Amino acid sequence: MSAAQLATAAGPKARVAGGYTALLIVSLLAPLVFPAYVTQFAFLWVLVVIALCWNVMGGEMGYNSFGNIVFFGVGMYATSVVQVGLYGDVGAYTAAKGGLALDLTVTQYFVGLGVGMFAGALLAVALAGILGLGMLGLRGHYFAIGTLGLGIAAAELAAGWDWIGAGSGMVPPNYPDAAGIDRTTVFYYLAFILAVATFFTLKRLRRGRFGLAINAIRDDEDKAEAMGLHTTRYKTVAWCVSAFFTAFAGGIVGNIVGFIDPRTVAFAGVTYGVWMVLMTVLGGKGTLWGPVVGAAVFHVTQELFWTYLLGWQRVALGLLIVLIVVFFPKGIVGYIRDKWPEKFGYTVDESATGAAADPAQQGGTR
Amino acid sequence: MDNIQLLIETPPFALQLVIEGVLLGGIFALAAYGMALVWGVMNIINIVQGEWVMLGGFIAFALAQWGGVPSLFGIPVAAAALFAIGWLAYHTIIFRIVDRDLFTSILATFGLSILFQQLMNQIFGADVRTLESGLGSWYFFNSMVSISQTKVLGFVLAGVIAVVLTIFMRSSRMGQAIRATAQNARAARILGIDTDRVYAFTYGLNAAVCGAAGAIVVMAFTIHPYQGLIYTVRSFTIVVIAGLGNLPGVIASAFGLGIAEQYAGFTLGAEFQNAFVFLLLVVILVARNLKLQRRREVLR
């Protein structure tokens, strides 16, 4: 009780600022303190990003996109194609199947990486806009299964396209040794910056009209439309935002992994494609912190325990999805929110009945 | 494009593709019929559908390869085993999601799909498997058209299963209860039908039909652990084209899909055949939606 009073005395704003600062310091120092785990930390931020992006569609808007992996893969391929294409011939590079190494200078490498990631993100946004024209008219089952089909179709198309290496995949250019800073550290900070940018962009978006509009679409799309919302426009924008950041995440993962396989890395439906859904549901879909918490919990569990499963981890993944979806659909943050609504800024009216204290009836999912 | 030229110049090749497509379509029709059954009765899109086909195939494969029994015997065994698995799946997982929202049912069955896909991958490995039937082929038009006798046998068996299923749904007590529940579950409950039992049976029956189809697939075609999802998508596409509770429609669109796949595989190259199936699904969904929108009716 005294801790709570202290916190209240300090003011909620100061408390929040303190929390963010602590997180920032921990995140910035993490690669220096635990140099052996930098890659794992970088993956954590990537997972946070893709979960946050999925949450915009599946959690906030109620459109269960199994096809966000398309943007992940497109971002990954586009980044590497630009990285290679700026300084060499992509067709010859992929045809050599890793035999042809590009020796890039430090400047060339980072210019290529930056241009590539932005090109990938813009391409993904354009793709989301075009696909959205047809796909976002679909509702319910049809959208879910249609996007599932898109994800696999993208993998199959990439696996058949010789220019980007077809089934044998593509290798992003080698990291220049002269850079003076460790490769994994660079990608850790890139992933961290991306995660921060994604989090605050989405936080800002869900505060305003946009957040209200997509929540209205989730709750009752026909009514939202009847109230005068341009639902198609909002849905398309939401998918584009989701695609933009997911594509950046893809570009980073392609360079961390160092090998782009069309089916198991780029358009990896069974890993990243499912993880983004699972992490969001685990953390609590439709909440701001849910995907972050879900990604952290999932990633730590995976890193700690899954090595002992010796190849059975994907079986465990399937089981985990079933268990979480069936028995724990609210997720961690959703559960906490229902348990202690006052911590989330809901005023619980003691005089009212139990039903009125239900946060879902007072302020939706905020 | 050379392949299109070839098709036009030598009609027997085109005929070959049509025949192969129809033989393949017989299997698709079985899986799609099961999906329509579960969709219509329980309002669940069963993403694990394709995995039931795959499981049936592996059970028949294991029986014939390691048990040494004739491969035809695998069909009833796979059907029985899958009925049990489906019944168990209903009583552990599916009954919890029947009345829940669509997100839950899609994601839960998707989780089951990954579970079984990876389980079979762990047990049997990712290799492509098939059973040798020892039957030959018939040749026509100077051997330009060859028809595998195994595929014809599989097609006939699929037809037999479909006929038995139709008779069962028409005249048995359980079949009538299933149809009543599909029409109106609440009314059926009031009239004394134990809908929970009906759901369990329906789900098991669907798995059994798929299992039998899988046992045919392993004889006439090939199976591997990752092929489940494509059967799910094929079934879904067929059901979307045909509509629920429309058996002739399901059969016709299954044949259509089989033929279209054969043509796509031949003209675009075999590596794009799967991509074609998935893109076709997307195109059909979008086209259907545009058509519905133009009519300005309420969706669903």
Overview of this protein structure:
The complex is a heterodimer of chains A (366) and B (300). By secondary structure, chain A is an all-alpha fold. Chain A has a domain at 34-279. Helices cover 72% and strands 0% of the residues of chain A. Chain A has helices at residues 2-10, 12-33, 38-60, 68-85, 90-95, 106-135, 140-160, 183-207, 209-219, 221-226, 231-257, 262-266, 269-283, 290-305, 313-327, 331-339, 359-363. In chain A, helix 3 packs parallel to helix 8 (183-207), helix 6 runs antiparallel to helix 11 (231-257) and helix 13 packs across helix 14 (290-305). The two termini of chain A are 25 Å apart. Chain B is mostly helical and 300 residues long. Chain B has a single domain, classed as ABC transporter involved in vitamin B12 uptake, BtuC (Orthogonal Bundle). Chain B is built from twelve helices and two strands. Chain B has helices at residues 2-9, 11-42, 49-67, 74-97, 102-124, 149-171, 173-183, 185-190, 195-220, 228-242, 247-268, 273-294, and strands spanning 137-140, 145-148. Chain B has a two-stranded antiparallel ribbon with strand order 1-2. Chain B is globular. Chain B starts with a helix and ends in a 6-residue tail after the last helix. The chains are: A mainly alpha (366), B mainly alpha (300). The A-B interface holds A 58, 62, 64, 66, 134-135, 137-142, 144-146, 148-150, 152-153, 156-157, 159-160, 166-167, 270, 274, 277, 281, 311-312, 314-315, 317-322, 325-326, 329 and B 45, 47, 93, 96-97, 100, 102-104, 106-108, 110-119, 121-122, 229-230, 233, 236, 240, 269, 271-272, 274-275, 278-279, 281-282, 285-286, 289-290, 293, 299-300.
